[in-house]
Amino acid sequence: MYRGSGIHHVGIGVENLEAMKTFYQGALEFNRVFVEFPEEEHNMDEMFRMPHVKFSGIMFQQEAGGVTVELIQMASPVPRPIRKDFRYGDIGVAKITTAVSDVEQLHRELKDKVNFCAEPKSTAIPGWGDYHFVYGRDPEGNLIEFISSPELPVENIFGGARWIGVSVTDLERSRAFYQKYLGFDTVVINPHDSFSGLVDEVSVGSGTQVRSCVISNSKGGEMLELFEVLKPRGRSIPLSTYWGDFGYLEIAIQCDDIHEMGSYFEKEGMEFLARPTLALDEPDYEGWYLYIKDPDGIPVEVISLVPKQ
After folding, report:
1. pLDDT at 1 > cutoff 60
2. Domains 4-81+241-307 and 92-231 share a fold
3. DSSP assignment, residue 78?
4. 254, 287 in Cβ contact below 8 A?
5. Domain extents for the chain?
6. How far apart are CA 140 and CA 223, in angstroms?
7. Which fold has domain 92-231?
8. Residue 306 pLDDT
9. Which residues make Cβ contacts (< 8 Å) with residue 120, sequence separation at least 6?
10. What is the percent of the chain with per-residue pLDDT over 70, rounded to a whole number?
11. End-to-end CA gap in the chain
């Protein structure tokens, strides 16, 4: 049923757009800019239950490609932090994973630009092999994982954001959901617990236990990591959270036909945050979006560019 590709972009609500742009472009080389939009009103009444919202933003990626990052600075309604004390394992979109040529070298060279959470570490993942990684935070505390592996060859310093990590309460349930409804039909890394005991600095716990897998869409797009922290258990998304609050907001997936997808989700009994909505009306195409919730209530955006006849 599903016709489309994997992860297109990740949305992050920010407090200071200019400072965050400077960090992502200067320190992490997100210099391929797709669009910058000035502060203006947008019709997103289904998301906010109000007629208009006002925000500005940018969409960009690294030169090597990968996941596009969308930074959103909300002006109205006034945004707040999703969490003031975010930790690894809290339910929701949790991190960007970016491939680099050499984690150790990157850690040495970017110490003055990136707030690293610990020294680089290594593990072996069944069916994958060596996995070298280090966690850092952007200026507003959002987690970024830097990895190097023979499975992800990188020509220059950065090899693009390769997947988005989403923390869930039930790994098997979430994997079945994304495979069935959103086209992630290929298992890249089978469920494993190789990160257990290695992420205490970001989980704010001791002896962290975590299960993780990586899945992709065989038709394209970037990958999705789903992980379940068993100890300490993550906290659910606060009920007062709004789109545009500071922190990771959503993953966005591209499809061929937004109306077909909307009808499919309707028949499957999905909970909509926003039904198919026209966002762009250009001379040659229309841009549409819809929002649904995954089993944990995490917002998932589906987007479509429809050529005009």
Report:
1. no
2. yes
3. P
4. no
5. 4-81+241-307, 92-231
6. 24
7. 2,3-Dihydroxybiphenyl 1,2-Dioxygenase; domain 1 (3.10.180)
8. 77
9. 103, 104, 107, 132, 133, 134
10. 96
11. 24
CA angle 163, 164, 170 (to 5 degrees): 120
Q: What confidence tens digit (pLDDT) does each residue in 184-214 have?
A: 999 999 999 999 999 999 998 899 999 999 9
> Which amino acid is present at 76?
S
Identify the pLDDT of residue 284: 81
Report d(CA 255, CA 18) in Å as an integer.
31
CA distance linking residue 85 with residue 39, whole number of Å: 28
Q: How many residues are present in the chain?
A: 309
In terms of Cα–Cα distance, which of 97, 70, 86, 210 is closest to 158?
A: 97
Note the pLDDT tens digit of each residue in 40-64.
Answer: 887 766 666 566 789 999 999 999 9
CATH architecture of 4-81+241-307: Roll (3.10)
Hunting for tokens 């955006």 — which residue is that?
301
How many whole angstroms separate alpha carbon 131 and alpha carbon 138? 22
Between residues 3 and 68, the one the model is more confident about: 68
Tokens 């007629």 sit on residue: 51
Of the candidates 273, 244, 219, 179, the residue with the CA atom closest to the CA atom of residue 13: 244
Which of 212, 207, 166 minimizes the C-alpha distance to 67? 166
Please enumerate in sequence order all residues whose Cβ is within 8 A of that of 77, keeping only pairs 6 or more positions apart, or say none.
48, 50, 53, 242, 244
Residue 238 has φ and ψ, to the nearest 5°, of: -60, 140
